[in-house]
Amino acid sequence: MRFSSTTARRFVARAAVPVAVLLAAGTVWQASYAAFSADTRNSGNSWSSGTITMTDDDAGSARFTVTNLVPGQTDTQCIKVTSTGTNYGPVKMYTLNALNTTGLMEHLKMTVKQGTGGSFASCTGFVATDTLVNGVMLSTMASTYTAFATGVGNWTTTSSPESRVFQITYLFDATGMTQEQLDALQGTHTGIDLEWEIQNA
After folding, report:
1. Same domain as 77, residue 166
2. What is the Cα 146 distance to its own chain's centre?
3. 192 exposed, middle or buried (CB, 10 Å; 0-12, 13-18, 19+)?
4. Is the CA virtual torsion 88, 156, 194, 75 positive or negative?
5. 20 shares its domain with 74
6. Are 66 and 75 in contact (CB under 8 A)?
7. Domain count of the chain?
8. Of 15, 33, 38, 105, whose CA is between 20 and 30 Å from 81?
């Protein structure tokens, strides 16, 4: 039986469609199971924070506990401050908890030196390397050196443990005061905390 050329062309065209689909499916199957692959990994990442710690050798005692203070009286004491930990940074001294800032505090002249040698028990062996406060009234310290940002000091730790000794001198300065002004200070009192703080640079 003979078919016209038109019919044959249609048959061939129709037959070609499923063949083409089968070939395409075979190509996808081949690609799914014959791809190249490579990877790399950076394993075991972890983070832990460092430490910074400040201690002193006061054993919980105030550096100055002065009673019966009189004009012109002076005294010098030391305290050893130590930085420990795994991180380093600048250390500043400032004041906290000022008590009765007018009156007696306005006549206590303070000098603070930084150095080596000596301890809370005794300033024997102290050698000054820097003067941080030189003849400043305690009231001025209480209003000026009030936080790390406004504190004094040029010590930046570079190892652990690392220590500095601070020599503190007060003077009840009555310069220029009248007898009436001096008498007004009888029976008064004042107080303050000295703080040393380190911050990681």
Report:
1. yes
2. 16
3. buried
4. positive
5. no
6. yes
7. 2
8. 105
43 belongs to a structural domain: no
The verdict on 124 and 190 lying in the same domain is yes
Residues 6+ apart with CB under 8 A from 51: 84, 85, 86, 87
Considering the domain architecture, whether residues 79 and 131 belong to the same structural domain is answered as yes
Q: Please check whether residue 47 lies inside any domain of the structure.
A: no
The range of the structural domain enclosing residue 184 comes to 52-198
Residues 120 and 183 in one domain: yes
Amino acid, single-letter form, for residue 73: Q
Give the model confidence (pLDDT) of 56-77 as tens digits: 999 988 999 999 999 999 999 9
Give the helix/strand (H/E) hosting 130: strand 127-137
- Residue 170 pairs in a beta bridge with 75, 110
- Residue 115: strand pairing partners: 128, 165
pLDDT at 32: 54
Return the CA Rg of the chain: 41
Smallest Cα–Cα separation from 98: which of 143, 58, 62, 60?
A: 143
Q: Do the domain assignments include residue 62?
A: yes
For the chain (201 residues), the mean pLDDT of every run of 10, in chain order, is 41 37 46 78 87 92 93 96 94 95 95 97 97 97 96 96 97 96 95 94 66
Asked whether residue 40 is assigned to any structural domain, the reply reads: no
